[in-house]
Amino acid sequence: MTERVDDIVEVCLLAGKLMLESGGETYRVEDTMVRIAASFGVSRSHSYVTPTGIMFSVEGTNVTRFIRISERSTDLSKVALVNHISRRISSGELSLDEARNELERVQQQPLGYPLWQQTAAAAGASACFASLLGGMNHFLPSLLSGGMAFWCFEMMHRLVKIRFFAEFFAAFVAGGIVLLMERTGLVRDVGNMMIGSVMPLVPGLAITNAVRDLMAGHLIAGLSRGAEAFLTAFAIGTGIAFILSIR
Amino acid sequence: MMIVELLLSFVASSLFGVIFNIPKRLLPHSGFVGMSGWAMYMAAARSGMDGVAATFAAAFFVAFVSNGFARRYRTPATIFIVSGIIPLVPGGTAFEAMRHVVMNDYNAAISLAAKAFMISGAIAMGLIFSEVVNQLVKRRP
């Protein structure tokens, strides 16, 4: 039995780790782990999740495990996949080994969309927002500045592992491109273009997760995600302020 | 003009889905959620509602539609909410606040920042109220 409990805990931790690393809400991770354990017959288990670590313990045994989460990315389709697997486990469709195989397959999956597609999407989204705020003549210039900002963010994030600096740098680049275009007389309405270009950097997931975690009563997770969202907003604001001050 | 705006918000929100890596088949849905949020915001703002109240109404509506999709497709509601609330983020107000900081006009900057903060709070409250409705609906047999 003890060996089996070890295996169950292993599967629970794998599911929790995948979800947390891909940007799932903390309460969803806790809930998923306890549910998976319960459907394999471990009815009394406890999980405690923060955005940077998972603790999982089975009551009445010595099994307690801890894993540290250091890398987080945004891949909501993985959250959806793990969620789906957990539903199938709960309905008794998957055995323990099958569940582990399915989860490992999700783990090895590459990121949902390649970088060029994401950059193109960011460029398009920036252009749409700038046109929404200021009119259709903002479309083409924002395509350039928004796309460049997102690409610079990704490149800077790979180079320097400090997320907030990468966000600052990307906002700086976006503002710089818009400023150059203003100097050469291509655009006049700097404000709406800058807003549109930094839109892809806005911490939408952090805001959503912070609110949903706070609602579920996870005060620590909610506050730390809120701090993440605030710092990101601050980094973007500083980048734009830098550009405005040299304008 | 209205149709162009709706189309732009639809495209923008579904493209945000790509940035957040949501499943391909759900991209149109996230676009629809973003579009309905923007439409709600515009309708409220143009009927003379305050920006904070309009944002609250729109965020409520976004989360309401998202929860509906989440039940229908058996997937986390977050997938639809994240790209849906992006158009509501007070980018313009925050930008103006930053501009005034740079001009050393702190009085104007603080009042604008307070407004941006209130709008962010309205997004959060909209999500919370919608979740309450969702739980009440779920509980009913």
In words, what does this structure look like?
The complex is a heterodimer of chains A (247) and B (141). By secondary structure, chain A is mainly alpha-helical. Chain A folds into two domains: 2-108, no CATH class; 115-246, no CATH class. Chain A has helices at residues 2-21, 26-39, 76-90, 96-108, 115-134, 139-159, 163-183, 190-198, 204-215, 219-246; strands at 45-50, 53-58, 64-68. Chain A has a three-stranded antiparallel β-sheet with strand order 1-2-3, with helices on one face. In chain A, α3 (76-90) runs antiparallel to α4. The radius of gyration of chain A is 22 Å and the shape is elongated. The relative contact order of chain A is 0.11. Chain B has one domain. Helix content of chain B is 82%, strand content 0%. Chain B has six helices and no strands. Chain B has helices spanning 2-19, 27-46, 51-73, 78-85, 91-102, 106-139. In chain B, α1 (2-19) crosses α4 (78-85) and α3 (51-73) packs parallel to α6 (106-139). The longest helix of chain B has 34 residues, at 106-139. Chain B is globular. The mean pLDDT of chain B is 91. Classes of the chains: A mainly alpha (247), B mainly alpha (141).
Most extensive protein-chain contact, per-chain counts: A-B, 54 and 43 residues
Report the average pLDDT across residues of chain A.
Answer: 90
**Element-by-element helix/strand order of chain A:** HHEEEHHHHHHHH
Strand content of chain A: 5-15%
What kind of sheet is the major sheet of chain B? none
Output the radius of gyration of chain A.
22 Å
Q: What distance separates the N and C termini of chain B?
A: 44 Å
Count the strands of chain A?
A: 3
Write down the secondary-structure element order of chain B.
Answer: HHHHHH
Q: How many H/I helices of chain A?
A: 10
Stretches of chain A where pLDDT is under 50 for at least 5 consecutive residues are none
Question: End-to-end distance of chain A, in Å?
Answer: 69 Å
The total number of structural domains of chain A is: 2
Average residue-wise pLDDT of chain B: 91
Oligomer kind: heterodimer
* Shape designation of chain B: globular
How does the overall form of chain A come out from the CA principal axes? Answer: elongated
Extract low-pLDDT stretches of chain B: none
The total count of strands of chain B amounts to: 0
The amount of beta strand of chain B, in percent, is: under 5%
- The order of strands across the largest sheet of chain A is 1-2-3
Keywords (chain A): Cell membrane, Membrane, Transmembrane, Transmembrane helix
Family (chain A): Belongs to the ThrE exporter (TC 2.A.79) family.
Pfam family, one (chain A): ThrE
Main location (chain A): membrane
